[in-house]
Structures are given as structure tokens and as C-alpha cells.
Amino acid sequence: MVPQEVKQQDFFVGTVRVNGRMDWSMLDSAVSQAFKVYIAKVDPASSLGLSTDSIYSYNMGHIKRLLGGEAPESQPSRCMSKGPTSITVALKGRPSWSQLPLDLQTPRRCLKEKCVDSLVFETLIPKTMMQHYISLLLKHRRLILSGPSGTGKSYLTTRLAEYLDLQLYLSNLANQIDRETSTSEIPLVIILDDINDAISISELVNGALTCKYHKCPYIIGTSNQPVKMTTANNSLNLSFRMVTFSNNVEPANGFLVRYLHRKLMEAEDERSLTDEDLLRVLDWVPKLWYHLHAFLEKHSTSDFLIGPCFFLSCPVTVDDFRSWFIDLWNHSI
Q1: For the ranges 130-134, 164-168, 184-188, which has the lowest average pLDDT?
Q2: What is the DSSP string of 169-220?
């Protein structure tokens, strides 16, 4: 079964000035510096654990440039069209179908070395945590993300599944694995969203787990409540690993700050980056969310906790903020 290629989201990182005197090594440095500045602004605390080493390649016009690789014959300025030219940067850990005829060993190395830089960049989840989730999945094959609503569990589950689905498929091609007819319809990854109890898990995955262990699909589930992982059917040998999401710790705790910083950068308005009123608003929103969370955690049950996802629609203009906040407070919170 060939997985569909995941549509990759593009983000505005910054601008690079290219002139006739610039060679490819100078452009490499300029692109790397723009990326370094961007991730430092999105996550001032740790830059998501990324660095300029996270860059795999970049495209400008018809030229695909591997960072530090052999320089094309034409200078960068000659590869540009009239007017502004887009430079598209690719990070490590994101193979595409265009790479298939070139290097089938890349996905195998990505899984082994846990190359998750692209996934980290897109999801805004720190690299060490993303590597931990991937390690748990590769080792135990079954994982449940448990925690309050709005902490990003379903989104992360989908992205982990997309990453594994593509990496595993390409890795299988590299290993020249010919799937048996009896298992050809079994997916590489199964998502179980909003799990309530272990019995429902047994019913849903019973058929998928009848194959040999190494050919069983990876299973990723989410639950808003802790799931007691016991079952009367021991033959299924369900041994899920549980990862607890909490608003008090990463990745949920710092996600809203990173998301709003990125949203501000995406506006591509240099005036907004220095608007003190707007910067104060975007600094205040995450603090307000966490204050509300702490109050609800102390005075109510877990059913009434709110995650950072409730505030992701925050506008990045002062003029729109007041009406947005009044509507959010009166109708959602």
C-alpha cells in the first residue's frame, strides 16, 4: 500500500539579499543565518533544539542546492528571475517522492538516527521530545497520548502517523521488502482518536494484530482521560506505552508562545515585529491562558481544563484583538 504524500506546509522564514558578487558559499551562509534568526525568534528559550545543521538543502529557481555541496556553474544571481525570487529550504527528516530514484537509503537513516528536524519545525514541539515519541513508537509500536482537551494530542498523533507512514514505506523499498498477499491490506499506521477504555481498543485492533509482530501496524491513540490498560484477552498482548500530556509541562506549556511568535512572523509585516502594543498583547495571551488553566485545575475537574489550542486563533493586529478576545471570552470560555 503506497501512502499518499503529505502536503507540506510552507512558512515564511525571512529575506536574503542576493547580488552579483555573491557566490554559493555566501548564499549558504545567508540562508543559514536567516533560518537561525527565525528559530531564535519563534523559540527564544531553545530554538526548538534546531540549528543550521538542520538544513538539508534549498531550492532557488531550477537549482537544488545541497548545503555545502558542489557549487553549480552559474552564480546565484543568474538563477534568479526578475523581481523577488523564492528560496525554499528543506530540513532533514522530510523525504519526498522526487527523492525516490536518487537515494532510498535516506529514510532508513532517518528512522535509525531519528532525523525529525522538519517535523519539529512544523509542529513546534522541541526536538528532544519528538525524538522521544519516535523512539517509543519504534520500540513498542503502540502509543497512547493522554491528557486534557486542547493540548494538541490529535494533531501530534496525525503528524507522527504521517511521518512514520512515509518513512516506513520508503524504508521498506530500500530493504526490498515484498509484502505477503495476506498482509497487503494492513496499513502501516493506525490512529485511534478519543479512546475511552481498553475494551474498545481490543475490538478495533483485533484484526490488525493477528499478523506477525514485525508486520503489525504501528498504533497511535489519544485519550482525554487516563486509560487502564488491561484486557481479558491476553492473546492480544496489548502493551501500550502511555504518554501523559499536561498544560504544566512541555510541549503544551510553551506551545502557545511559539505558535504566536510564528504567527507574527508569518504576517510578513516588519512594523508588527516592532509594535510594542502588539508584542505586549502576544506576551499577555499565553500568561492569561496559563492563569485560567491553573485556576480551573485547582477548582474544577479535568473535564473543564482548557489547553492552548483554544487561543490559536488570536489575531496579530491590535485592532482585531479586542473584538476577538471579547467573542472568545463570552462564547467559548
Answers
A1: 184-188
A2: HHHHHHTT----GGGTTS-SEEEE-S---HHHHHHHHTTGGGS-GGGSPEEE
Q: What is the pLDDT of residue 122?
A: 94
CA gap 80, 266 in Å, rounded: 23
- Asked whether the CA dihedral 224, 328, 288, 122 is positive or negative, the reply is positive
Q: What gap in Å lies between CA 142 and CA 171, rounded to an integer? A: 19
What span, in angstroms and rounded, lies between the C-alpha atoms of 278 and 276? 5
Q: Which of 111-120, 129-138, 248-257, 317-326 has the weakest average pLDDT?
A: 111-120
Direct distance between the N- and C-terminal alpha carbons of the chain, in angstroms, rounded to an integer: 44
Residue of 213, 210, 215, 236 lying closest to 1 (CA atoms): 215
Output the CA angle 255-229-200, nearest 5 degrees.
90
**Does 226 sit behind a cis peptide bond, omega within 30 degrees of 0 on the bond before it?**
no
Q: Which of 124, 111, 101, 116 is nearest to 48 (CA)?
A: 124
Q: Tell me how far apart the alpha carbons of residues 97 and 178 are, in angstroms, rounded to a whole number.
A: 19
Gap between the Cα atoms of 223 and 148, Å rounded: 8
Using the structure block, give the residue that is written with the C-alpha cell 510564528: 262
User: Is-contact 190 218, C-beta < 8 A?
Assistant: yes
What stretch of H or E contains 297?
A: helix 276-299
